[in-house]
Amino acid sequence: MIGVGDGHHIYMEQSGRPDGIPVVVLHGGPGGGCSPMMRRYFDPAVYRVILFDQRGCGRSRPHASVDQNTTWHLVADIERIRTLLGIDRWIVFGGSWGATLALIYAQTHPDRAVHLVLRGVFLMTQAELTWFYGGGAGAFFPEQWERFCAPIPPEERGDMIAAYHRRLFSGDLPMEMRHARLWAGWENALAAIGNDGRGGEGPSEYARAFARLENHYFTHAGFLERDNQILHNAARLADIPGTIVQGRYDMICPPTSAWGLAQAWPRADLRLIPLAGHALSEPGISAELVGVMDQLRYAQH
Prior knowledge:
The chain is α/β, with parallel strands linked by helices. It folds into two domains: 2-126 and 223-299, Alpha/Beta hydrolase fold, catalytic domain (Rossmann fold, 3-Layer(aba) Sandwich), CATH 3.40.50.1820; 127-221, no CATH class. The protein contains ten helices and nine strands. Strands 3-5-4-6-7-8-9 form a seven-stranded mixed sheet, sandwiched between helices. Strands 1-2 form a two-stranded antiparallel sheet. The protein is globular, with a radius of gyration of 18 Å.
C-alpha cells in the first residue's frame, strides 16, 4: 500500500523480471480495479509489470470514496509510483477508461511514456456518454436498457447519469447497493460480443465502488477542461508511438473513437479486431495484445 495523500492509500504490485522492460497497467472503470489476469499479456522473463488499484477501488482505501478523486489525482499517482520505483520511462498499457487515463497521462508527461498500448478506446466525450447512457447502445439491447431504466421515474430518464447519481450518493446504503448493481450490470451485459445480454452481478461491494466512481467521473466529464480534450491535445502525442487494439463490435466504446484518435495521432497503429466487442478477455483482443507485447520486447532493446 502506498500513501498518496488526501487520506488515500493505493494498492500496488510488481511481477515479472525486476530488471525487465517496465510497463504500467491502467485498469478500466473508473473503479474497476486490477486483477491477476492482467499479468498474462506480458512475458515475465522480459517485462517488469506494475499494476495498481486506482483511488477508491479494489484493494485501495478508503473504498468507494470519491473525495479527492479526479483524473488529475490519478495522473499524479501514476507519477508517484514511477518515481518511487526509480523508473525513468515505461510502456503504458490501458483499456477502456485505462486507455483514457493512459492518453491523458502521456499528454501530461510525454517524456515518460515510451509507447502506449490501448484497448477499447474511450475519449471521455459527451457523445460517448450519450451513446451509452442516452439510449444508443440500448437500441441493440432493449431488454437490458429497460431494466437499467426501470427504477428511474420517467421524468428523470432524460439524464440517466444524474438520476443514478442521486441514488448512488443518497447515503441510503441499501439504495446505493441496489442501484450500483444495476449500473454495473448494464455495462457487464454489453462487454463481450458473445454475451446473451443477461450479464452477471459481481459482489455488491465491488459494484458499489465501480458504480460510484464511474458515475462520479462521468458526472464531472472526466474533470477535463473541455469536451473532446484528448483529440484537441493530440499533438502532444507526436513523439510517442502507440498501438490501438479495438473490437469492431464494441458496444461500450464504439470504434469511431479509436478511428478518430488514430487519424489525429500519426504514430498510432490501429488494429480493428473482427468479431470482437469490448472486453479484455475477448479471444481476438487478448491474442492481439499478447502479440503486440511480444513485438515490443524487441523494439525496446
